[in-house]
Amino acid sequence: MTTDSELIRLDGVTKEYGPNTVLNDVSFTVGRGEVVGLLGDNGAGKSTLVKIMSGVVPMTSGRYLWEGEEIKHVTRPETERRGVETIFQDSALVPSMSITRNIFAGREITNRLGFMKIREMDRITTEILDSVVSIEGIKSAKQLVSSLSGGQAQAVAIARAVHFKRSLLILDEPTSALAVRATEALLNYLVQLKAEGVSSVLVTHNLHHAYQVCDRHVVMNHGRKILDIRREDTSVAELTAAVVEGVEGVRRFRTGRPLAEIGDAPGPLA
Ligand SMILES: Nc1ncnc2c1ncn2[C@@H]1O[C@H](COP(=O)(O)OP(=O)(O)OP(=O)(O)O)[C@@H](O)[C@H]1O
What region holds the ABC transporter domain (predicted)? Predict the structure, then answer.
């Protein structure tokens, strides 16, 4: 069932790579203006789910609905057209171009004759860099991306995505290479975007960051969804148990008793 406030819904998604099932009947929704944490241990299937959501890899089976309408052929151009912006672990910037050119790639500001208004783009880039993620150590918007550290480059990609305010921002481990101040700025920005109705999916191993900003948490374990829970109904301790110990951790946490005393764990908990 879909609701009016639902932006995206993946229904019963399965992904197989050869004989390996890396996503097994996963359903995942994001509401309008909702920030959802996508959590789980290494290899749980988070990045695969993100790639399916952004149209980078096709699902083996399942359905993809956008505002209640099913999209049959989910491609990157299709999701981009609908306003999905994804920051992958290795942010897709062009090293040989300036920060400004990367920020405006494909959305250049031009005059009537089609020439790029570089000074205006540099000015806006400087504002974006100052306001969005306060990136330490960047001297100028004209600087080449090849001269930036990994964390700085990632922050530029994030700045670009948040500036163009898309309908769904997917961040795959965005804070892993960011300094403390830039991380705080990014998390605050997600909350600001939410107030403007922009939805986000935050993939992270840092459960404190997730708990700080996400309205809902989805925990993956070995390709299955094992927990889908609103922030007010959970805690960092429970999320930690779910990520580290899987479904047994959640059951133990909820009952406070060892698994042996409460019997076998059923399917996904919600
Ligand atoms: N292109 C691929 N071909 C085969 N197997 C793959 C491919 N991409 C991912 N996998 C496998 O799918 C599983 C899930 O990987 P995925 O990257 O989605 O996990 P993750 O939860 O994002 O992990 P991490 O936190 O380490 O990034 C892993 O076992 C991985 O080896």
Answer: 8-247
